[in-house]
From TrEMBL:
<keyword id="KW-0997">Cell inner membrane</keyword>
<keyword id="KW-0472">Membrane</keyword>
<feature type="transmembrane region" description="Helical">
    <location>
        <begin position="107"/>
        <end position="129"/>
    </location>
</feature>
<feature type="transmembrane region" description="Helical">
    <location>
        <begin position="6"/>
        <end position="28"/>
    </location>
</feature>
<protein>
    <recommendedName>
        <fullName>Rod shape-determining protein MreD</fullName>
    </recommendedName>
</protein>
<feature type="transmembrane region" description="Helical">
    <location>
        <begin position="135"/>
        <end position="152"/>
    </location>
</feature>
<dbReference type="Pfam" id="PF04093">
    <property type="entry name" value="MreD"/>
</dbReference>
<feature type="transmembrane region" description="Helical">
    <location>
        <begin position="78"/>
        <end position="95"/>
    </location>
</feature>
<dbReference type="InterPro" id="IPR026034">
    <property type="entry name" value="MreD_proteobac"/>
</dbReference>
<comment type="function">
    <text>Involved in formation of the rod shape of the cell. May also contribute to regulation of formation of penicillin-binding proteins.</text>
</comment>
<comment type="similarity">
    <text>Belongs to the MreD family.</text>
</comment>
<keyword id="KW-1003">Cell membrane</keyword>
<keyword id="KW-1133">Transmembrane helix</keyword>
<keyword id="KW-0133">Cell shape</keyword>
<dbReference type="InterPro" id="IPR007227">
    <property type="entry name" value="Cell_shape_determining_MreD"/>
</dbReference>
<keyword id="KW-0812">Transmembrane</keyword>
Amino acid sequence: MTDAPAQGRSVVFASLLMALMLTIWPLPEAIAPFRPDWSALFLIYWIMALPHRFNVGTAWCVGLILDVLTGSLLGQHAIALAITGVLVAMSHLRVRVFPVWQQAMTVMVLLAVNELILILVEGATGQLYDLEWRWAPIVTGMLFWPWVLFFLRSLRRRFDVS
């Protein structure tokens, strides 16, 4: 561990804000079910890239903000993103060395775990709906992962985020 001060936190928080904005951005009804979970994708990247700076606490806070923005049960996305963050933090050393296609498959599994937790919470509270389209954001998230990876990696390198 280094004692160097963190650089570029504002870049990370700006990217997470962008992910939250993409999450609530209105889409046409035909493609809305295919919207990837941008918050989860961006958090997976930042926790994988800088686990000593951004971790489960960051995921919990982003999840609470996401709950407020979407009007869902308070803590629903927070617990799902926190558990996903724990899984990323536990496996980040292995996943970072994977080729991009294997990372995309791993991200698909992480997004599926995230979605399963959301389904369990909604089922427990009696708010479960649209089960036939719950797989769509998982698949689109996997397909968007290479672009998210390259975009955030270029941001991290350009602004020397550490």
